[in-house]
Amino acid sequence: MARNVLKKTSQTETSAARLTRNKRGDLKITLISLHGLIRGHDCELGRDADTGGQVKYVLELARELAAHSHVGEVELLTRQIIDPKVDDDYAQVEEQLSENAKIVRIPFGPKRYLRKESLWPYLELFIDQTLQHFRRTGLPDIIHGHYADAGAAGAQLARLLHIPYVFTGHSLGRVKRQRLSLGKEDHQAVERLESKYKFTSRIEAEELALETASMVVTSTNQEVQQQYELYDHYQPARMEVIPPGVDLTNFSPAAKDWTTPKIAADLNCFLQEPDKPMILTMARPDERKNLEMLVRVYGESEQLQELANLVLVMGTRDDLRDLPKAQRRIINHVLYLIDRYNLYGKVAYPKTHKPDDVPELYRLATSMKGVFINPALTEPFGLTLLEAGATGLPIVATNDGGPRDIIANCKNGLLVDPLDKSAIEHALLRTLTEPEQWAEWSDNGIKGTREHYSWNNHAERYLRDLDDILEHSPAPVLADLAEKSSTRRLPEFDRLIITDLDNTLTGDDEALKEFVELIRENDHIGFGIATGRRLDSAMELIKELGLPQPDLIDTDAGTQLHYGENLTPDLSWRKSIDYAWKPQQIRDVLDMQPGLYPQIEEHQSEFKISYEIDTSVSPSITTIKKILREAGLRAKVIMSLGMYLDIIPVRGGSDLSMRHVLWKWGFAPEHVLVSGDSGNDAGMLLGRTLGVVVGNHSEELERLRNRPRVYFAEASHAAGILEGIRYYNFLDKITIPNDRIE
């Protein structure tokens, strides 16, 4: 039943030709930001506590880049949300931001709103959906991922499509974990932080993004020196400090005819002496924002209470009970402290405000000779500080991240240790009691924000760096395939079964015989093999088992692809697989590690280095990855059956090889059933393909349980594959009962 697969050839443009095209204004930039609520008007600034600044940043970046003559199109990919608890705008597939910029909302995972920590199980679905989007609209010239989740997804897309990649981490996992772990030494507290914030996944995603990125855009020098430096893939040469811009259209000093805004009435109902100066803070309720510390400082300072009112703008809430648990807890703690210090009549905490109210709040505080404070434990961005400064309101801010550069550039306030109560009190008192200094800081903020933080300057520097990246990057290997593959198919069948060999197909002779008959009797179903074995070893076992000739064979742990009866190699895959691959240097580093024993030569191949591993004495997998990174070696590390370790190129693996096949041949993931039993099968089991894990699977695959489109069969070996075929009704009209795991 072997079916020949036609060999494809493609002509790809040179990097010089592409650069010439870009300079005519055709540059296409794809920005990715997945968490929070993103829309082009009346932006809610995200529901997650540390997303507000990032959401606004990426929207303004998209608009500014699209306005540049060098750029033809900017698309901002985010997540489609269909949820009665949020506005219907977030369900729109597309939303125009400007003439050449738009938001594209990709559906993946549950339809409802999810916190960013809940998105990790669905990233592979986003990757597959985005590939379909690129097939319809064309490949971008640059992919730019924002934050850890989009950073990982964007890096995977860039690796697969060989498109230059840019990363902006915003709030970094290692830094946040350090900050939140202060004073929490017991094991249970650390576990609770891990459960809540998914730090392990987040940090590994950031490492992947840093490893892939041609450029890392940061807001401040402190980010580079004290935050990114904590990562194994920290490369100073790739770091570009480009201060973020601020849209100053709305954030300007009060005009002569300015009148007290309506929101003042909402504050006044809290306050006994509403004409006092205002200590204003504006932040989502989150541990990192350190709002409780601010209330403690105010509650323990008679001087501050005598001089000023405290105004806490903590997002928008209709009903406190509807907020996420973490946000609800922070607000409850704030209310407790107000009660404990008997601050009634001195503290305002309005429950709602509109986006138009924000600049008016700054102007109101400025008119009353007040001060804006950001007491966050860590602040990578500092958007509210820039907005306040542009309006003429002096600032007191945490001595971390963005505020350090803002105050150094603008000279409009004071930095404080966010854990030092007396330092916070002293800074606030100085700002409120020194009128000449207040006036100087106010003027400096108005001028400095406009001089140092304009979006035009940001975009100019950004595009200059992109030009340099593109000039030194080859055109994507798959660029031509993107245009032609929509009309190409693996011949003669409309669906495909791909399965591992050892312990998946083998182990149950009766079930294997039934599976072989099923393949032979259904000409509309293609047959593929994905195995860690070398090609010659795999073909020997296929012949020994009496299997049909595969239409597709993916060997050497996802590093070699061949098609049809003649085993035609996939040249476009081979062209890219050796990227950054240094096998001898990897062997030099790992051969000396305890508990790692090179497998025999027949298990080694050009793009796969294989070890047997004794985990009782060997370094952990995390440590092995770290050892390679510290040696400057880029590779994937795959553990199988608890005793086999494969090292392969960063562009290899069953996840990327399967997506390459689907992209190249225009195959719908929903028409591909994949089955495996061990860790090296994990990549192909995730995403929009229909996954089947056989009953005799190894422990490594347990992490996939309850993932969407991954079915755990009760039966073992080939019987488990047959069970999965029945589960998805794969021979007839395909159904996907596990499409979404709520």
UniProtKB/TrEMBL annotation:
<dbReference type="InterPro" id="IPR006379">
    <property type="entry name" value="HAD-SF_hydro_IIB"/>
</dbReference>
<dbReference type="Pfam" id="PF13439">
    <property type="entry name" value="Glyco_transf_4"/>
</dbReference>
<dbReference type="InterPro" id="IPR028098">
    <property type="entry name" value="Glyco_trans_4-like_N"/>
</dbReference>
<dbReference type="InterPro" id="IPR023214">
    <property type="entry name" value="HAD_sf"/>
</dbReference>
<dbReference type="InterPro" id="IPR001296">
    <property type="entry name" value="Glyco_trans_1"/>
</dbReference>
<dbReference type="Pfam" id="PF05116">
    <property type="entry name" value="S6PP"/>
</dbReference>
<comment type="similarity">
    <text>Belongs to the glycosyltransferase 1 family.</text>
</comment>
<dbReference type="Pfam" id="PF00534">
    <property type="entry name" value="Glycos_transf_1"/>
</dbReference>
<dbReference type="InterPro" id="IPR012821">
    <property type="entry name" value="Sucrose_P_synth_Pase-like_dom"/>
</dbReference>
<feature type="domain" description="Sucrose phosphatase-like">
    <location>
        <begin position="494"/>
        <end position="729"/>
    </location>
</feature>
<protein>
    <recommendedName>
        <fullName>sucrose-phosphate synthase</fullName>
        <ecNumber>2.4.1.14</ecNumber>
    </recommendedName>
</protein>
<feature type="domain" description="Glycosyltransferase subfamily 4-like N-terminal">
    <location>
        <begin position="52"/>
        <end position="249"/>
    </location>
</feature>
<dbReference type="InterPro" id="IPR006380">
    <property type="entry name" value="SPP-like_dom"/>
</dbReference>
<dbReference type="InterPro" id="IPR044161">
    <property type="entry name" value="SPS"/>
</dbReference>
<dbReference type="InterPro" id="IPR036412">
    <property type="entry name" value="HAD-like_sf"/>
</dbReference>
<keyword id="KW-0808">Transferase</keyword>
<dbReference type="GO" id="GO:0103011">
    <property type="term" value="F:mannosylfructose-phosphate synthase activity"/>
</dbReference>
<dbReference type="InterPro" id="IPR012822">
    <property type="entry name" value="SucroseP_synth_GlycoTrfase_dom"/>
</dbReference>
<keyword id="KW-0328">Glycosyltransferase</keyword>
<feature type="domain" description="Glycosyl transferase family 1">
    <location>
        <begin position="274"/>
        <end position="447"/>
    </location>
</feature>
